[in-house]
Amino acid sequence: MSLAAIIANLPALVVVVPLLLAPVAALIPVSGAAWVIAVIGTGGALISAWLLQGAVTGGVSFSYHLGSWPPPWGIEFVVDAASALTVLIMAALSFVATLFARRALPAEINERDAGKAYSAWLLASGGLAGLVMTGDAFNLFVFLEISALSSIILIALGAGTDRRALVAAYNYLIIGAVGATFYVIGVGFIYAVTGTLNMADLAERIPQVQQDTVIIVGFGFMVAGILVKAAVFPVHIWLPAAYAFAPSAVSAMLAAIATKAALYILARILFTVFAGVPDVTALALEWVLVPLAIAGIFTGTILAIYENDIKKLLAFSSVAQIGYIALAFGIASSAGIAAGFIHIGNHAIIKGGMFLAVGGYFLALRSRVSLSAMTGLGRRMPITTTGFLICGLSLIGLPLTAGFISKLYLVRALIAEDMILVMILVLVSSALSVAYLWKIVEILWQRPEGDDVPLHGDETPALYLPLWILAIANLWLGVAPAPLVDAANRAAMHLVGGIS
Amino acid sequence: MRDNPVLRTCAKILFAPIIVFGLYVQFHGDYSPGGGFQAGVIIAAAFILHALIFGLEAGRRLVPQWLNLALLAAGVLLYGGVGVAGMSMGGLYLDYNVLLPDPSAGQHVGIILVEFGVGLTVTAVMLALFHAFAGFNPERFGDETSDEADHSRGGS
Amino acid sequence: MSVFVTNLLLLLFLVFLLVLVIMTRRLFAVVVLAGAYSLVSAAMFVNLDAVDVAFTEAAVGAGISTVLFLATMAYLPGREKVLPPSGRIGNAMAAGIICVFAGALLVAAAVELPAVGDPNAPAHVHVAPRYLAESDSFLHIPNVVTTVLASYRGFDTLGETVVVFTAGLGVLVLLSGFTRTRRAAQDRAGVKEDSDA
Amino acid sequence: MIDPVSIITDSWNYLIVICLMMGGLFIVISQNNLVKKLVGLAIFQTSVFLFYITVGKMAGGTAPILLDSADVAYSNPLPHVLILTAIVVGVATTALGLALVLRIHAAFGSIEDDEVLTIKAEAALPRVTRAASETDSEARS
Predict the structure, then answer these.
(1) C128: which chain A residues are within 8 Å (Cβ-Cβ)?
(2) Please, what is the Cα angle at A172 between D105 and D37, to 5 degrees?
(3) What's the pLDDT at C44?
């Protein structure tokens, strides 16, 4: 295939490369070789996403017609500032998590399942990328299911260390399927009054529809379905168990990218597809999304403070962080949406890094990482722990870290909209998040009462390098946030400016 | 069930016609209801019938697990490969128009190929599902035993 | 008119089957009733002109799904546990409230939908006519469902194939895989340690 | 060609289909048995399929397989295509769910949600009690 052909087809390659390498990986019984396929798949997606981001930086946005059928008859991929940024963040994080998986994944499952696990891994990363790229409401459902089913396989593989992973996977399957079906019901009602499934076409036709109730109900069901996937409070209930019991590498990848894709779709549905009915969306934002986001922030933070199992603690913290992103989108101003995108990127590197560090601890301890088991690990695994700390400080929003930039732009956006009460709540919750992080830091450098728990093997670069890539990204984006902030601003402008 | 001569004879007689019907549904999908998905289920049904009557072991001899897995992947790769072929011949992904000089004929070829890919994957998946469920051994997963016992069991 | 009568009868039959599924406690019966539900739905699809869908629903919903359910039941207890009335009523109340609320919303929207079969409904006049016209003039394939499935929305179908593949992969990993279940906090010391050195 | 009576009366289709959907959803939420939840999910999804196909129906129309005569109305093929995809997705979900149920039964010895949840609830207990219950369960096995 010529270079020109490759460049012309970049939007498809982001999705198709991982999806088509998945069956190849499934056929390879050797763990290392299957991992190479996974690296090629996620790496190929990352390069494509990088080039796409480069293309949209100049303000270009274009549509890729799959099968050369023009929309609304065919399915299109939409490449614009918002989708390219999200897909780049996701591709980068899944590539880093794949590097970590080389050692981590085969250690937690039987190695003879590794090929199939990497296959599911590729399916999840390709499916999530497709979710972001597609401009067709029904095609989105198909990708929703690809990513959900492959994530369920990966979560269920956690049974290799803890049987409760099976229950977590089953619950995710049921809750996720109900959510996806709600989304399909919503799409069906909207289709019945518009006759189209293409998002851009929907955005044009929805304002002309006479039947208001159908639009409101269809909108409500679509959003409800997406909220389940994004794990926004109170439909976050599948998330803590799923992240806590999945294999470490899987937790890291899912925490970094899975809910991000759903949050991006939420923004897309709110600000482009239903942009023509502003009173409906404004109502939903003001009375549903913002209160739920705030409730999620506090629920997640408080549950995290009282949790002892470190993976579950981080998962509860994710519920809170998803709340921040949802809140930022709920502000609905250009600045708010930009803050949302900034935090999508920053939370991905923060939480991805923390889960990678916990994965490192797990492999050293060979048991579930509880707070008491972490006693004194700071001395014995200094490289991993320092990386963990950098990400942790970024999580609470210390200046000079990426997390600070997120909070800064969120608070600014809130002040600009005179949402002072909400801003105070955000600051209070940030202060609360110091509580659970401090609890961990204290224990990491405490001397154990008895002897040290024996560790299995020393720290190896294979495990801490991916973590450090993310830790450095946290520092770099804290000091020089311009690239991410600019990209997020462009994304926000594009979404609020409507589809042009 | 395996020793019943009536069942055995019926299964032998029915096996080929079911597959032929499956192929008809597969390749006549352009003109009548049907296509890769329905055909895949029907063809898998023939193999499942065979395994029901002659036993899971015999079924596995007919389609060993490695072949089953290979077919599973082959279908997806065939479908995706048609898309890649479209790209490499100057079109967009899954563009069938460029496959042949005449776009209409290209569409025909593309549709037949991707439907065949669907049929392949569905047949293989249905067969794999049947064998996985029918041959499930709860003991293997019930409780921890030593890893030696783990490794001595069934091959992939 | 006859279409309407058959539809109504089939729908009422479906309601009847649904009530039976809710009331029945023997899981084998539940599974078979669910198969019957699929089969009646397939008949309804034929009645609504969706022959391809009916074919698939009969083969998959009534066929493969039922077989899989029955195969699963062979390993499981045949009756579901009867909860104490307090728990049962609590569950039913919670579920009932959610369903009545969601159902009320849908009904409110449904009465506004274009009448069933209205040829001027947006769904019939906007995107679909091109499929019907072009399938004849350009593609020369009479079964429009096939052309839309494999060509216009071929990417959906690729996704569908990938979903099937994923399910096959998942079932193979879960039921014929090698990763054994472990109970909490069991360490794997000495098992995997040097496997990757 | 179009029978006005049938148009008016057929609108009941939607209402009954909505009842069916909610019945399926009710089973998913209210039932305790993991298999029955999956049955409910299948019924829920099948009912949604009925909704889509009803949207695609055209009065006096016929199946979208083109005939030679010109003046035939065809029902909308698009919902049919969507639902073909959705049926396949549905059976994939069911298969994976059933495989999980088998593994859960092998690992926990139960397919009732409340019993499995009880075992899960141990995880939420403070560390000490949990360790105790783990030793306990190992002693039993």
Answers:
(1) 195
(2) 55
(3) 93
Q: Are A126 and A486 in contact (CB under 8 A)?
A: no
D141 touches chain A (CB under 8 A): no
Please report which helix (H) or strand (E) contains residue A64, including its range. Answer: strand A62-65
**Helical segments of A445-481, H only:** 461-479
Where residue C138 falls among pLDDT bands split at 50, 70, 90?
confident
Domain boundaries, chain C: 1-80, 125-179
Determine whether the interchain pair A149/C166 forms a contact, defined as Cβ–Cβ distance below 8 Å: yes
- List pLDDT tens digits, range D101-119: 999 998 888 888 777 765 5
- Is A152's CB within 8 Å of C170's CB? yes
For the CA atoms of B118, B123, B127, B128, what is the dihedral angle to 10 degrees? -20
| Nearest residue in D to C34, CA atom | D39
* Residue A162 scores a pLDDT above 90: no
Spell out the domain ranges in chain A: 3-496
Let me know if residue B91 belongs to a domain: yes
Full-model pTM: 0.92
Span B33-86, pLDDT tens digits: 888 899 999 999 999 989 888 888 888 898 998 999 999 999 999 999 999 998
Residue D18 lies in a domain: yes
Which chain A residues touch B80 with a CB distance below 8 Å?
A: 16, 19-20
The mean pLDDT value of chain D amounts to: 79
Domain of B117 in residue numbering reads as: 5-136
Q: A5 and B97 in contact by Cβ < 8 A? A: no
CATH number for the domain including D33?
1.10.287.3510
Cβ within 8 Å, pair D78-C127: yes
**Mutation target vs C (from D44, D46, D119; most C CBs, 10 A cutoff):** D46
Q: Do D85 and A142 touch (CB under 8 A)?
A: yes
Decide: residue A59, CB within 10 A, 0-12 exposed, 13-18 middle, 19+ buried.
Answer: exposed
Give C135 to chain A, closest Cα distance, Å: 12
Residue D10 in any domain: the answer is yes
Residue B153 included in any domain: no
Q: How confident is the model at residue A452 (pLDDT cuts 50, 70, 90)?
A: low
Cα–Cα distance for residue pair C148/B102, rounded to 1 Å: 19
In this prediction, residues A212-226 reach a mean pLDDT of 94
The secondary structure element, H or E, covering residue C34 is helix C27-47
Given 3-state DSSP classes, what are the helix, strand and coil percentages for chain D, each rounded to the nearest 5?
Answer: 75, 5, 20
* Amino acid in position C180: R
Is B155 inside any structural domain?
no
D133 at interface of C, judged by CB pairs closer than 8 A: no
More confident residue, B18 or D68: B18
User: What is the total count of domains within chain D?
Assistant: 1
CA nearest C109 in A: which residue? Answer: A214
ipTM: 0.92
